[in-house]
Amino acid sequence: MHRKRQLDGSTSRGQNIIPEAEWDEFYATLQKNLPVTFRISGHRAQAEELLNTIKGKFFSSMLNVKVDDEIVPPPKNLTWYPNELGWQLDLSRKIVRSSESFSKLHEFLVAETECGAISRQEAVSMIPPLVLDIKSHHKILDMCASPGSKTAQLIEYLHGSCAPGELPTGYVIANDSDNKRCYLMVHQVKRLQSPCCIIVNHDGRLFPKIHIKRDDKNPECQLFDRILCDVPCSGDGTMRKNFDVWTKWHPLQGANMHGLQCKILQRGSQLLEAGGRLVYSTCSLNPAEDEAVVCNLLRSSGGAMELVEVADLLPGLKFTRGLSHWRVMTKAGEWLDGKDNIPAHLKTQYKETIYPPTPEEANSFHLERCIRILPHHQDSGGFFVAVLEKKRHLPGSKEEREEMKEASTSEVSADDSKSGAKPDGSNGVTELVEGGKRKAGHVSEQPESKKPKMFGYKEDPFLFMNEDDPIWPQLRDFFGLENSFPANQLMCRSAQGKRTLYFVSEAVRNITECNEGRIKFINMGVKSFSRSPSPMVPDCDFRMATECLGTLLTAVKKRKVTMNRQDAITIMSEENPFIQKLSSDLRNQLNSLSPGSTLFTFTPSEEEKSPKCEVSFCGWRGKNSVRCFGSRAERAHGLMLFGEDLSEINRRVEAAKKAKKLAQEEESQNSGSISVGELDGKLDEKTLQCDVDDASDSNLNEETPKCDVDEAPPNDVGADEKEMASDGHKVEEKKIAALGEQPT
Ligand SMILES: C[S@@+](CC[C@H](N)C(=O)[O-])C[C@H]1O[C@@H](n2cnc3c(N)ncnc32)[C@H](O)[C@@H]1O
């Protein structure tokens, strides 16, 4: 009953947010658990391959499954998510426990999430990045980004519109005001292995303008082509997973968030390039946090910002349209109709901007272009999305003033009067500048003379390399890096030791260098080389890192081999297979390579039925054996693409191991003389150390495989995490890695 009373307030029947006839269905849906939703991510060809596997191997066995005599609904495709890559299914604990096919799929999804091939994300949360219409050259800002599920999508789309092997010229800046939450994003973003993303830590309301190098001396301000404002909100749309909302929600929460949301959106609009697109979203159904915030921006922008119709971009998605009229409720549950009737003591809590537009404003604002997704529409959470485009510079902005200098005075004044700008050239917007001072009037970046204060900012430096660095010749010559490979896009976090080198795109490097001391950079770059000296490799102390595979495959010319299907399966499923076990073609290639870090690639032939995509990994060419340097999840993913099942392989290996041990014990009992270890040693003394790790005796249950002592240096999967642990953020990172809670 209590739940219902609160609900009546939140999405009140009087508001008509939920059509009256749908109220019961809406309310019943809120009582049910959210289904599991996920999207297949990664490069196009691999994503298609994975989709085929999921459909063929898992979904086909999930039709007509009964649990407790009830048919479990089959997996449902999210029609509005492109290329059939978004799915929804009921994976409740009860179903997972009682159905083998569902429990296998659950296991599979956990593993594929770990290696980044799929992302579990609430269906409605996938919408904002989708409607941003991202291209590879876009400069993108995610203003309230943590924990980063939408940032991940933005990065994927940025890379998705690039030719294979090419890097986007655009980038994603992922910002959050909460320093700890910024580190949550580090893990999320790391899975995507993109050199085009920067994580920063600012209050979105005060987000500084980004400087970039125009020429050697003069920096210039850069605006963004795409901005996502997925703002903090009361979260009344998340009632199906955040049960706290049922007891803690009250109508004042929306009013309390309204001011912050307005300021973040306002700042977003100032940072948006003319012609650019901005998406405003909340997981609240309350108009105070939704339409009222959008309305406030439309009003102050004097026509520069316009809502865009997006229904066509989301085929099959059910939603209701934005409202042009709503009512305001007090904490005590009373209506506060009319902004002129707010009692004096409530004026600080209920701003005038929380009220609906006038009829004239409503006519020009087109709030019906906003969309509200209601939980019962397609068994999801509640969500609100508004897509805005900037038709011209904001009135009174620095950009407009610059444009005015070039245009004729008469034309500009005419435009001003149309746009509603004030006589002083401002749009009446008060801009907060870093340090908390208010600057009334125009909306330019903060004064150049005053550097923003970097309160509480403490990060290791980002130190870029250049071609004079003593490390560079060994990297260039050993790996045969292309002449065009930019040494100055390699970076480390500590001048001493240079243990790990990270790779960033040209744009990211430019931004990092031009904004040092202005922007609180938290993280950027993909691990590309890590120091791992081996006596067998005197010419180079570094090995390539799997995280940078995408870039290395194009840049590295020397240490690359191609493999056939069977080679790929052998190397990914066994710990240290002997070179003589591999095909003659691969043996020949390996024989002409000295020991050391090596890239392995499988390219499908025309006849190959599956996989139809390339499969590559970073590995090691040892003296007598090779190894794959992928984590267990990465190797399981690779094997899955070849139709192999890692757990099945491991079961076989375990069974063979047991049988062998039993046979040896029996034999030694019969002969009464020789022990198991001695027997192994006698079989192949020369390669004893390899033999210990030989495939027939190994399985891949270890995250970090054992190292063949005279062969590869240890696989330092997780070294970054060790580095991170020093700043106390490791625990948070681990939390997000788990597949428990579904991120919004
Ligand atoms: C709804 S969550 C964002 C979810 C995220 N976009 C995602 O999809 O994973 C809102 C985020 O805004 C952050 N936040 C709160 N106030 C902020 C501010 N003034 N500026 C920037 N971020 C803010 C919170 O720390 C929180 O991480």
From TrEMBL:
Please provide the record's keywords in A-Z order: Methyltransferase, Nucleus, RNA-binding, S-adenosyl-L-methionine, Transferase, tRNA processing, tRNA-binding
Q: What is the enzyme's main class? A: transferase
Q: Which residues form the SAM-dependent MTase RsmB/NOP-type domain?
A: 26-391
Q: Which Pfam families match?
A: Methyltr_RsmB-F, Pre-PUA_NSUN2, PUA_NSUN2
One GO term in the molecular function aspect is: tRNA binding
Matching PROSITE patterns, A to Z? Answer: NOL1_NOP2_SUN (PS01153), SAM_MT_RSMB_NOP (PS51686)
Region of interest (Disordered), residue spans? 395-452, 685-744
> Where does this polypeptide localize?
Nucleus
Q: Which residues form the active site?
A: C283
Q: Which family does it belong to?
A: Belongs to the class I-like SAM-binding methyltransferase superfamily. RsmB/NOP family.
- Can you name this protein? tRNA (cytosine(34)-C(5))-methyltransferase
Species name: Elysia crispata (lettuce slug)
Lineage, uppermost ranks:
Eukaryota, Metazoa, Spiralia, Lophotrochozoa, Mollusca
